[in-house]
Amino acid sequence: MIKVRHPSELGHLVQDGVRLDCHFAFRDYVDRAPLHWGRLRVLNRVELEADAAFRLDHESAIEIVTLVLDGVVAALVDGLGDSLLKPGDCHVVSAGEGVALATWKAGGAPASLLQLWLLPEEEGGEPEIGLCRNGDRFGHQHALLASGFPADDPEETDQGRSGDPLPLKASARVLRLMLPAGGQAVVPTYADRCVYVLVAAGHVEILGHDADAGCGVAITGFETIILHAFEPSTLIVCDSD
């Protein structure tokens, strides 16, 4: 099964200098909104005006993966410290038993980011954060940013500086693919997995279906995902059970 969701089908929320494009039900976007795809519960593109902030008052039992697209963003997580994020950086908040306040704030210029929320295998546990600076384990074009599979993570304890993926408590992988015009990527998976591809920029063909920037593509029932780029393209892929 393949379902292409175009930007016009998404939820669009605007408040206090923050714009959200929501692929799944989120806050006031609930009517006819899908609730999740596999363990992917939320996928939002967040556009921040200069000095604007996106805040979460309390979240628990969720893995929040943040990928910065443009600008500089300060990630402020109550009790877990602050991080300054730049384009290409990946930041993970494992909310565990609960995070009281989390904020993503733009600096003196606009910024944009993506957030993926994943449902963990088990609830509870101490909250944690992780940060990977422009991870490039698969080279410039393919980067495994975060994974819930121990086999993906060599025995490193350097907070992501080596380019190893950040750990997740969900059976999921988050990848970034950067393809030149005419480029191709092949992503192996399993037929019973739920794959969601976000076209962050560019124009691609995925298993015979066209998808432009802003589109989300829900896929299941395939063991191989083949992507062709018609122009330079950036894709975010979430593969979960």
TrEMBL record:
<dbReference type="Pfam" id="PF17954">
    <property type="entry name" value="Pirin_C_2"/>
</dbReference>
<dbReference type="InterPro" id="IPR003829">
    <property type="entry name" value="Pirin_N_dom"/>
</dbReference>
<dbReference type="InterPro" id="IPR041602">
    <property type="entry name" value="Quercetinase_C"/>
</dbReference>
<comment type="similarity">
    <text>Belongs to the pirin family.</text>
</comment>
<feature type="domain" description="Pirin N-terminal">
    <location>
        <begin position="18"/>
        <end position="118"/>
    </location>
</feature>
<feature type="domain" description="Quercetin 2,3-dioxygenase C-terminal cupin">
    <location>
        <begin position="164"/>
        <end position="239"/>
    </location>
</feature>
<protein>
    <recommendedName>
        <fullName>Quercetin 2,3-dioxygenase C-terminal cupin domain-containing protein</fullName>
    </recommendedName>
</protein>
<dbReference type="InterPro" id="IPR011051">
    <property type="entry name" value="RmlC_Cupin_sf"/>
</dbReference>
<dbReference type="Pfam" id="PF02678">
    <property type="entry name" value="Pirin"/>
</dbReference>
<dbReference type="InterPro" id="IPR014710">
    <property type="entry name" value="RmlC-like_jellyroll"/>
</dbReference>
<dbReference type="InterPro" id="IPR012093">
    <property type="entry name" value="Pirin"/>
</dbReference>
